[in-house]
Amino acid sequence: MSAASTPRSATRDQGPKLSRPHTVEGKVREKASTPSPARTTPLPGPRRATEGGSASTAIAGWPIALFFAVMHERSSVSELVSSLRGELNRYSAGEKLPSSRALVERFRVSPVTVSRAVSQLVSEGLVVTRPGSGAFRAETAGAAPAPGDTSWQEVSLSGGGGPEVVPRTVDASGVLVTLAAPPPGVIEFNGGYLHPGLQPERAMAAALARAGRRPGAWGRPPTDGLGELRAWFAREIGGTLTGSDVLITAGGQSALATALRALAPPGAPVLVESPTYPGMLAAARATGLRPVPVPVDADGVRPDLLEAAFRATGARVFVCQPLFQNPTGVVLAADRRARIVRAAREAGAFVVEDDFARRLVHADAGPLPEPLAAHDPDGVVVHVRSLTKITSPSLRVGALSARGPVLERLRAIQVVDSFFVPRPVQEAALELVGSPSWERHLRTVAAELGGRRTAMTAAVRTTLPELALPHVPSGGGSIWLRLPGPVAGEPALVAAALRAGVAVAPGRPYHCAEPPAAHVRLSFAAVSGAAEIAEGVRRLRAALDELPAPGDSLRG
């Protein structure tokens, strides 16, 4: 039975009843009930460009108003935590703090805001709570012990056993660029996930609530994953794949790491697109593999160079993103697809197909090519996909699919590494993709991403004409820009952009060897909309103007 047709519990989420919405001095109180008619007046309180557009935009619908209320509440919690943290020195260790009621009255916030702020201080070890008594300043920790001598670890971590040992250093800098939250006020052009305004937060919350009430939801799941969820992924991939060919993983990154460990021994070469996703390069190097670049052009990876790379290296693995490749956004041409799989088959190699962006398609993209795995009876293709990119960074549910003996090796490595993906998360994923809101969410994201891409490309062409945009993608969440100067100028622009208030991703981490030119990647998925895109590009213009004159720098 499909996930979409599986009967779901009709029980509604019986949370606490909510009070009428009210405000205090411009701050939105939570626990606002959803009124039946659409809200036609602007939500009280300040508006920020990063929370849904310009301050002049009228907020007409309650869902948008609720989003503003949630974002405002998060800000209130952060501000209260900061205030309380600064006042703790007034209290001695073990002294009782003011009551929640006193804090509500003093700071003009809601009881829930106070509760969340105190919980944050407890998690930091600054406050302890005693049921029925209140909150107290934590006992002062003793003086930190003098640091020991950890220099011996450099020798241990470098490996041993002879000159053939593969270095075990792990460079996660390319991944952290897209995971690290920028400082407050900085526009996030370096993000790798959907902006919170595009994430289906209400649908996910409802799905998680329903999942938690399912019989056996908190029990141990099958190590391969829930049968319904495996079957759903198999239908999504298409072809003759079935649920028995699928393993549920903790997101796409975990699936890639498992595949690389399963398919090649430490020290072996692995062919990769150039440029390519830095997270995959980091996973390959952490496994002890040696990434070998195969150039990508406007039609995807070049088959002639791939065939030559197989012959020259003896590699047994090729990792690619045939659809909306990261970072270029290109799609592997139809006349190259069969040739890529055939080249790997003749070399006795696997193709790891990272189909990360299929659900990030734009509304104007047209029909999409099927995955390589859908037409692969010989088990050449190991397919990776995930729900994370199209939902939330924290819904880490993905899938690995394969045919033949390799599936058993993939299964064994995953079990050793993580046992299984937590059952409540899998149940929530099933509830989400089987709900009526799922298709609506996909349509909304497709329209929004297409509009934001158009806004960003237009702004770049108008405001940053010296940056080359060789390809306008019809899927994914970013564009790939070539800088006019040498590669050495790339870090200078990235640093200047951050000073100007916009974070961009440098191009260097996307190459496993020397890059042919300087690039930056700009994300339009991680920002709030067209207004923030325009402001971010304006700041990037200011950063570019800050650099030395042509002939001396990036623009030379």
Task: Sum this structure up briefly.
The protein has 556 residues and is α/β, with parallel strands linked by helices.
Descriptive account of the structure:
By secondary structure, the protein is of the alpha/beta class. Helix content is 37%, strand content 12%. The chain has helices at 62-87, 100-107, 111-123, 152-157, 173-179, 201-212, 227-237, 252-263, 278-286, 303-313, 334-346, 406-418, 423-433, 437-463, 490-500, 530-546; strands spanning 23-24, 27-28, 127-130, 134-137, 187-188, 246-249, 269-274, 290-297, 300-301, 317-320, 350-354, 381-386, 398-401, 478-482, 502-503, 505-506, 519-523. An eight-stranded mixed beta sheet has the order 6-13-12-11-10-7-8-9, with helices on both faces. A three-stranded antiparallel beta sheet has the order 14-17-16, covered by helices on one side. The N and C termini lie far apart (61 Å).
List its traits:
single chain; 556 residues; alpha/beta; eight-stranded mixed sheet; 16 helices; globular
